[in-house]
Amino acid sequence: MIIEHPLLGPRDAAEFTYLGDARLIDRPDWQSETAAHDFFEYGYLRDNPAGWHQELWFHEAGDRSWLVITRNTVTHEISKVELARDVARSRGRSK
Amino acid sequence: MRYSGFKVLKEALMGHKGWTPAWRDPEPQASYDIVIIGGGGHGLATAYYLAKEFKQKRIAVLEKGWIGGGNVGRNTTIIRSNYLLDGNEPFYEFSLKLWEGLEQDFNYNAMISQRGILNLIHSDAQRDAFVRRGNAMILNGADAELLTTAQIKERYPFLNTEDARFPIKGGLAQHRGGTVRHDAVAWGYARGADSRGVDIIQNCEVTGFRIENGKCLGVETSRGFIGAAKVGCAVAGSSGRLMAKAEMRLPIESHVLQAFVSEGLKPVLPGVITFGAGHFYVSQSDKGGLVFGGDIDGYNSYAQRGNLPVVEDVCEGGMAIFPAFGRARLLRMWGGIMDMSMDGSPIIDKTHIDGLYFNGGWCYGGFKATPASGFCFAHLLARDTPHPTATAYRFDRFEKGLMIDEKGMGNQPNLH
């Protein structure tokens, strides 16, 4: 797989390590009444779709940026690559 | 029809006109007592033990393609019971014992060959870990032997024990481990189940569950609705996709694992050898091909094919420990989809939906578990209580902190 890095251009997927579903950006509220259960779901349950999947990749052997990649788990086709920082900020994080 | 040497001789003299299909191709009935989704090794074994050991009637196995076309025909055929943790080792030892009697039990030649498995040791830390593992195996009634470098030199003279990067400091051997002809496992269980009245329905894809008031009443399929008092799902690899139809999210990610086979060679390799430090393991099939593999690709995938960086990594591992194998040409490589669970261990449990049972999360270790997985899932379906060796394989272990994490990697499925 070739990953079109938003800053560096096309890079070999072997330069990256994989974390998982991009929903991991959305940490639950630790002060919530249901925090224990929310963190169980956050830590352990996954949608695991066959088809389009947003996921976190780390450019470990490159610029060490975190990316959110939209990739099809059936064909390995990549349709979109964003900096995870931009995705998190667009969701109101790290303002 | 019972298979035997006498039967083979008789058919040879009669022009082989007396052989009949090993299983029927029935139309689905309107309802069954128990419906198993997934006609792979685990699903067929479940149906076989339900009919044979638990005396259940009116059972069907639904398979979207043809039986044995998934992971039971895509693995590297190794059987062993060299696990460490209490939740796992008794289960895998139970499985190895079932393997040992399987061919007589289901009257089918599965070419079970206990040629032994050797885990190589390259460092003090690895030796400590393998000594502990071997002791855990012995405590659970399995066999394990710690081999010295001298013993390895004697038994495996082709291994270079003096390599500068990976000197061989010993090994943990399980002599009862070995290999099996994997397709024959699916066929043997299918034939045994079919002869006891189980309907094996191929080309029948489950498209949804009919769930009312928290109870599962049956399954919608590409061949119409099939009612069932109990539905058991055994579709490891596709568990996430299937259980989403029951609106369940699982502690599982689907990942692709690649496997490889070389051209046929004369006998060069006795038994299975694992080179854990280099992420490589290999055995030689009865046809002579070197069957080998390594790590999963490491990203979510349902594609049944992997990418080249892992091919390179596996072959580098192979070359590091067996430089001679570099002369062998690669014949085939393929990928299979693994249910990678959050702690690297499987699940055999009821779901929160009445009448819906789940078997999955086998990671890349499902083949060796086939007989025990089928037996324990049949036990759960027939009696509604877990088999004594499978009590730890619960859904709620993640929320309760009772993980069975052999490698101590935490909730990162691609590292197990």
Descriptive notes:
The complex is a heterodimer of chains A (95) and B (416). Chain A is of the alpha+beta class. Chain A has one domain (2-29, 41-90): Folate-binding fold, CATH 3.30.2270. Chain A contains two helices and six strands, in the order E-E-E-H-E-E-E-H. In chain A, the strands form two sheets. A four-stranded antiparallel sheet of chain A has the order 3-4-5-6. In chain A, strands 1-2 form a two-stranded antiparallel ribbon. The mean pLDDT of chain A is 96. By secondary structure, chain B is of the alpha/beta class. Chain B folds into two domains: 29-81 and 83-108 and 182-251 and 343-415, FAD/NAD(P)-binding domain (3-Layer(bba) Sandwich); 117-178 and 253-341, D-Amino Acid Oxidase, subunit A, domain 2 (D-Amino Acid Oxidase, Chain A, domain 2, 2-Layer Sandwich), CATH 3.30.9.10. Chain B has ten helices and 18 strands. In chain B, the strands form three sheets. In chain B, strands 1, 2, 8, 9, 10, 11, 17 and 18 form an eight-stranded mixed sheet that branches. Chain B has an eight-stranded mixed sheet with strand order 5-6-4-13-14-15-12-16. In chain B, helix 3 (89-106) crosses helix 9 (370-383). The mean pLDDT of chain B is 97. At the A-B interface, strand 3, helix 1 and strand 4 of A face strand 12 and strand 15 of B.
Key terms:
heterodimer, A: 95 residues, alpha+beta, Folate-binding fold, 4-stranded antiparallel beta sheet, two-stranded antiparallel ribbon, 6 strands, globular, B: 416 residues, alpha/beta, FAD/NAD(P)-binding domain, D-Amino Acid Oxidase, Chain A, domain 2, 2 domains, 8-stranded mixed beta sheet, 10 helices, 26% strand
Q: Averaged pLDDT of chain B, please?
A: 97
Low-confidence stretches of chain B: none
Number of helices of chain A: 2
Order of helices and strands of chain A: EEEHEEEH
| Residue fraction in strands of chain B | 25-35%
- CATH H level of the largest domain in chain B: which superfamily? FAD/NAD(P)-binding domain
- Distance N to C terminus of chain B: 43 Å
Helix percent band of chain A:
10-25%
Which secondary-structure class do the elements of chain A indicate? alpha+beta
Say what the CATH topology of the largest domain in chain B is.
FAD/NAD(P)-binding domain
The SSE order of chain B reads HEHEEHEHEHEEHEEEEHEEEEHEEEHH
Output the strand order for the largest sheet of chain A: 3-4-5-6
At the first level of CATH, what is the class of chain A? Alpha Beta
Total tally of structural domains of chain A: 1
Give the oligomeric state.
heterodimer
The share of residues in helices of chain B is: 25-40%
